[in-house]
């Protein structure tokens, strides 16, 4: 992964976009993460939600691995607040990714900006397919994927699978 330095607990930044660093979670991120991830109405299209602080801590603070799937924090460069999170997983010739933005930062272009940055990074890694799964009811996410150049390929386990 691209390697930049972040001054928040010495964690390496995995990606960056114009306004954000995308890096492994640190303990200081957990309170802001809990606020939006446990807002069940906001997270209605997500599977990773409604857990305790300890459960999130166990999952988020371990060393990220692309092969096992990595949940990464999106951090605002301007004020170091948690904007949201991304998920990325490498499977053979495919990278899967997903994104979540806190409702405090919705409709400000962060999801597009960060997803576009992740796609650019994936393309630097070689000739990989890029895919994302999305609930058929999540119209905002479907529009975002289409804006990024994705097209719907098939349905799997109730989700539409989009590919770039």
Give start-end ranges of low-pLDDT stretches: 1-11
Number of strands: 10
What is the CATH class designation? Alpha Beta
| Reported CATH architecture | 3-Layer(aba) Sandwich
Tally of contiguous helical segments: 4
SSE run: EEEEHHEEEHEHEE
Structural class: alpha+beta
Radius of gyration: 15 Å
What is the CATH superfamily label? Gcn5-related N-acetyltransferase (GNAT)
- The geometry reads as globular
Main beta-sheet strand count, sense and barrel state: 8 strands, mixed
**First-to-last CA distance:** 20 Å
CATH fold category name? Aminopeptidase
What average pLDDT do the residues reach? 87
Lay out the secondary structure.
Elements: E1 4-5, E2 12-13, E3 15-16, E4 20-24, H1 30-37, H2 53-60, E5 70-76, E6 82-91, E7 94-101, H3 110-124, E8 129-134, H4 139-147, E9 151-156, E10 159-163
Parallel strand pairs: 7-8
Antiparallel strand pairs: 1-2, 3-4, 4-5, 5-6, 6-7, 8-10, 9-10
Describe this structure in words.
The chain is an alpha+beta fold and 164 residues long. It has a single domain, classed as Aminopeptidase, CATH 3.40.630. The chain has 4 helices and 10 strands; from the N terminus they run ββββααβββαβαββ. Strands 3-4-5-6-7-8-10-9 form an 8-stranded mixed β-sheet, sandwiched between helices. A two-stranded antiparallel sheet has the order 1-2. A hairpin with a 2-residue loop joins strand 6 (82-91) and strand 7 (94-101). The longest helix is centred in the C-terminal third of the chain and has 15 residues, at 110-124. The protein is globular. It starts with a strand and ends with a strand. Mean pLDDT is 87; it is low at 1-11.
């Amino acid at each position: 992964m691209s390697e930049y330095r972040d001054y928040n607990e010495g964690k390496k930044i995995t990606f960056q976009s114009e306004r954000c660093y995308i890096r492994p979670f640190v303990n200081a991120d957990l309170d802001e993460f809990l606020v939006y991830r446990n807002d069940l109405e906001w997270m209605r299209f997500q599977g990773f939600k409604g857990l305790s602080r300890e459960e999130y801590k166990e999952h988020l603070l371990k060393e990220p691995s692309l092969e096992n799937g990595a949940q990464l924090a999106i951090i605002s460069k301007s004020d170091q607040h948690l904007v949201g999170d991304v998920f990325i997983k490498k499977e053979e010739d495919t990278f899967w990714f997903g994104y979540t933005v806190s409702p405090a930062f919705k409709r400000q272009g962060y999801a597009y900006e960060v997803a576009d940055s992740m796609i650019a990074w994936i393309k630097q890694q070689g000739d990989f397919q890029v895919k994302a799964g999305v609930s058929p009811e999540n119209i905002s996410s479907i529009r975002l994927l289409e804006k990024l150049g994705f097209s719907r390929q098939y349905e799997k386990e109730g989700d539409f699978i989009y590919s770039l």
